[in-house]
Amino acid sequence: MPARSKPLEQLRLEAADRGDEPWRLWGPYLAERQWGTVREDYSPGGDAWDYLTHDHARSRAYRWGEDGLAGICDERGRLCLALALWNGRDAFLKERLFGVTNGQGNHGEDVKELYYYLDATPTHSYLKFLYKYPQRVFPYSRLIEESARRTREDPEFELLDTGIFDDDRYFDVFVEYAKASPTDILMRVTAYNRGPDYAPLHLLPQLWFRNRWSWRASAAKKPSLAADSDTSLQARQERLGDYWLYCDGRPELLFCENETNARRLFGKNDAKGPFKDAFHDYLIGGQKNAIGKDRTGTKAAAHYSFTVPAHGSVEIRLRLVGWDKAAPAAAGAPMPAGDAFAEYQAIFNDRIREADEYYADLQAEIDDADARLVQRQALAGMIWSKQFYFYDIRPWLDGDDMQPQPPEPRRRGRNSDWKHLNNADIISMPDKWEYPWYAAWDLAFHCLPLALIDAQFAKEQLLLLTREWYMHPSGQIPAYEWNFGDVNPPVHAWAAWRVFQIDRKHRSAANPDDPGDLAFLERVFHKLMLNFTWWVNRKDIDGRNLFQGGFLGLDNIGVFDRSRPLPTGGFINQADGTSWMAMYSLNLMRIALELALHNPVYEDIATKFFEHFLSIAEAMTNIGGDSRGIGLWDGDDDFYYDELNLPDGKITKLKVRSMVGLIPLFAVETLEPEMLDSLPGFHRRLQWTMKNRPELCALVSHWEQPGLGERRLLSLLRGSRMKKLLRRMLDETEFLSPYGVRALSRAHLELPYIFSSRGFFHAVYYEPAESRSGAFGGNSNWRGPVWFPVNYLIIESLQKFHHYYGDDFKVECPTGSGHMLTINEVANEISARLSRLFLRDASGRRPMHGHYEKLQRDPNFRDHILFHEYFHGDTGLGLGASHQTGWTGLIAKLLMPRREEEPAAH
Predict the structure, then answer these.
(1) What phi and psi, each to the nearest 5 degrees, are found at residue 528?
(2) pLDDT above 50: residue 855
(3) Helix axes 492-510, 455-464, angle to 10 degrees
(4) Cα(743)–Cα(361) distance, rounded to whole angstroms?
């Protein structure tokens, strides 16, 4: 049978990986919110949301980035292209997405727009974005006022709740990009009037340079934009080279400077424009002299004005073309303006067809059309969520010589001990509006679905956070910009190993003897050993292999805010922190074993991590007889709990049945007999451990009892204890939701956990939706909803257990049903419940759309998928950040068929 030819998009990706063609030079790297970020915050107290607001954003030049609507930029964020709109009624030119701030929202920050990432290819050769723009006055004030009126007991007030879409008086604005070459980009905007009447619409594609010249005297030469003809303009920047923007039709070309309007914001009446907000003032404010008169500047727009008929549409076409920066300026434009659109439609047709071919190849084994639709939009969201992220801590702390100096307190405030950090890279973001900054453990999960389509980018992302301009000299990986020193779960070794496996599987299709990218695995392994050492030195207070860690990304899951000093004093030995470290030990052991197959020096270090795993397991169960500890496993409840150590020496279990007690499942690994035969040194040291510490090996593993296929198991949970834990996890009155595993047992709805000590009183209730507690900040909630990352790890862990136990080992699922399943079938059941969130049911409804009939039934809404931060623990309604395609994008991996003989997690 002849080999199947590769899709053209795959060939482009391979050319980019080799460095032959820079297909990744331009991409959807523009942030969706630069205002309200730590990077732009120069306030004394770190009030980022209030320092640079949405209202200020249109008038204020940013220091560290740019934002826009449906935008793209080059890989250094120098030149940006995005869309602005005006419906003839709004008080603001729509240049960026609106949302309530952390202080305005009744559950924290929340974007109040409807937009969707509909399609994308990994080289960005084709991109498609949808924005739903109301024809009435956008309800900015009502959204703020109603959010302020509501309490934490109430649901959030969304744009759909205003009724503004009820009679279809809105535009569907589709923005598409197609690349003719790495530096030749076509932009098409198509606006459909879904309403019953004619409606005005102004479309303003904007091209502008990020302001890099107003901050430091040593800044690079200021770039320029200038009209080249009535329908084209030239962009010049020293390092990027020259670009021309061609505009089809006869738009009005507008120009201004990407500079702060100091007259509006700071009362400086002598400040000279035109300023960043000139197009708003010109179009909406009627200030005809607001724009530049000489048709030059650093920001430009092509203004198209339409009256769109009922149920009709309009289209505009643009083309951004780069010219070799080494070519002499006299060479002129790359093409006559009249030729720019000669093959425009053919190029778009080709790129759309090639995108379809690429996904047809990727999804060849997915039979269900709806599953293919969901997966393709999930992967589009992963691609659209890339962002140029720029943050250099030293000048941020010290200030710029051409600007007022920052207040003195900031030198000792947020992130002041991360002066080495200097980030200027393309990074996968959790959500480019809610979280337009990387988060360490989020990013690790992002890399698995990314590896399905762009393994090289996934590997680079994992390496990036371990580079010396990211990782702290102490070995800590930065958490996120609000506090780089916070602690996220150590999942990078797991992600690196899984990405290596996924990549190796792809490579072996072309060359069965390919061992995989060992250079990547070795590079990341050495850096992760530094991080592992940081954990051991910093997060094990007594040196007893019981770890604290902090909040570990789970926000409000427990009694206390674990990232702050406890109100009771003392410290917590965390079941999750300790289990994460057991998992980390096994992950690093497995990587070391893989490397040892090619370089025997790694056998020693593999043994070291095996022994560390045993030490952690011993500490968790207290078999050493330490009189201070009582162990993290509770034999009465058959569950793991955190252990509170008070200053007076008293120790008590915090008996909250939560995801914290399920995380011990994640510390599991199986090893094949062939590997042990190939590594006699490692095998010999393990046999010595079994002989000299048999009680330890008997406790944590079935090492001495070969399982299916003579393979061996390492786990914190032997069969009986695992069955007891699964009995709780698979109980639908506790953890098992129709849509996955809840983060908190539903038993706490009627029986909340109550804690009181020294006048401190707190209760942990089951809360399946938004959090009712303001003690932990933000808009996330781990007290009952379904979260994708931990559910995904549960699934992979169960697959590993099944790989050892085989089909003879069965558990009841759901608990009390009498229905016995293998461990693999349990994993498949949880995967199916998670997939059920997005897929249409028998009545055509998607649970993540919830009670919104518009989303469920309207053909212009129902097949547009949002990938939420988390999901209602009972109904499946999408909650939190609405575009967290980051780790919720794991659905793309779950929807890929898995062959039974090839366990995905091994």
Answers:
(1) -70, -25
(2) yes
(3) 150
(4) 36
| Residue 531 · residue 588 · CB < 8 Å | no
pLDDT band at 905 (very low <50, low <70, confident <90, very high): very low
Strands, DSSP E only, in 675-830?
Answer: 712-715, 736-737, 740-741, 753-757, 760-764, 810-812, 820-822
Rounded Cα distance, 95 and 489, in Å: 37
Could you give phi then psi for residue 299, rounded to 5 degrees? Answer: -145, 135
CA 291 to chain centre: 38
The two counts, helices (H) then strands (E), for the chain are 24, 34
Nearest to 206 by CA among 115, 288, 303: 303
Q: Are strands 184-193 and 199-209 parallel, antiparallel or unpaired?
A: unpaired
Beta carbons of 728 and 639 less than 8 angstroms apart:
yes
pLDDT tens sequence across 108-119: 999 999 999 999
**Which amino acid is it at 405?**
Q
Q: What distance in Å separates the CA atoms of residue 3 and residue 785, rounded to the nearest whole number?
A: 46
Residues ≥6 apart with Cβ < 8 Å to 901: none
39 neighbors 385 (Cβ within 8 angstroms): no
Residue-wise pLDDT tens digits, 427-475: 999 999 999 999 999 999 999 999 999 999 999 999 999 999 999 999 9
Q: How many CA atoms lie within 13 A of 554 on its CB side?
A: 31
Quote the CA–CA distance of 443 and 447 in Å, as a whole number.
6
Measured on CA atoms in the order 800, 803, 804, 810, is the torsion positive or negative? positive
Q: Assign 771 to helix, strand or coil.
A: coil
Burial of 142: CB neighbours in 10 Å, binned 0-12, 13-18, 19+? middle
Q: Cα separations (Å) of 870 from 132, 783, 834?
A: 23, 11, 11
Q: Is 513 exposed, middle or buried (0-12, 13-18, 19+ CB in 10 A)?
A: exposed
Count of CB atoms situated within 10 Å of the CB of 514 = 14
Q: Please work out, in degrees rounded to the nearest 5, the angle formed at the alpha carbon of residue 272 by the alpha carbons of 266 and 273.
A: 95
CB-CB contact of 120 with 126 (8 Å): yes
Q: How far is CA 657 from CA 462, 661, 788, 816, 836, in A?
A: 32, 7, 19, 19, 25
d(CA 682, CA 603): 5
d(CA 563, CA 478): 15
DSSP annotation of 318: E
Q: Write out the H or E segment, with its range, that includes residue 172.
A: strand 170-181
Q: Find, among 28, 41, 27, 96, the residue nearest to 67 by Cα.
A: 96
Query: What DSSP designation does 670 have?
Result: E
109 φ/ψ angles, rounded to the nearest 5 degrees: -65, 150
In sequence order, the β-bridge partners of residue 174 are 130, 190
Which stretches of 30-125 are assigned E, i.e. beta strand? 69-74, 79-86, 99-100, 110-111, 115-120
Please report which confidence band the pLDDT of residue 760 belongs to, taking 50, 70 and 90 as the band edges.
confident
pLDDT exceeding 70 applies to what percent of the chain? 95
The model's pLDDT over 374-412, given as tens digits with 9 standing for 90+, comes to 999 999 999 999 999 999 999 999 999 999 888 888 888
1 — pLDDT class (breaks 50, 70, 90)? very low
For residues 879 and 866, the answer to whether their CB atoms sit within 8 Å is no
State phi, psi for 731 to the nearest 5 degrees: -85, 120
Q: Is the pLDDT of residue 256 over 70?
A: yes
CA-to-CA distance for 736 and 554, rounded, in angstroms? 19
pTM: 0.96
Asked whether the beta carbons of 283 and 301 are under 8 A apart, the reply is no
| Residue 617, CA distances (Å) to 179, 547, 575 in order | 54, 12, 11
C-alpha count within 13 angstroms, C-beta hemisphere, residue 702:
22
**C-alpha 138, offset from chain centre:** 28
Angle at 505 between CA 504 and CA 509, to 5 degrees: 110
CA–CA separation, 718 and 700 (whole Å):
7
The DSSP bridge pattern shows strands 299-308 and 571-573 to be unpaired
